[in-house]
Amino acid sequence: MARMFRVLGFFTLVTGLMMYAGHMTDMALLFFAQTAMFVLLGYMKLTEKAYLLIFWAYMIVAFLGFTYYTFFEMEVF
Length: 77
Prior knowledge:
Blueprint: H1 2-21, H2 25-42, H3 48-73
Helix pairs in contact: 1-2
């Protein structure tokens, strides 16, 4: 399970780099912060139950934050 958090860190890093290349700096910084969190959690050697609880908490916060950002903060072209 710890490896999956490192994999999530890799994918959030790639997504953050694509956001940065697309001139979406705020979103890129958000994904870079997620990358740091995932990589840090990946090396903490927690129990599988702890990793699952952290992941579900992350999913709830991330989806609520992303929904708020896309509805209220993102500019319409």
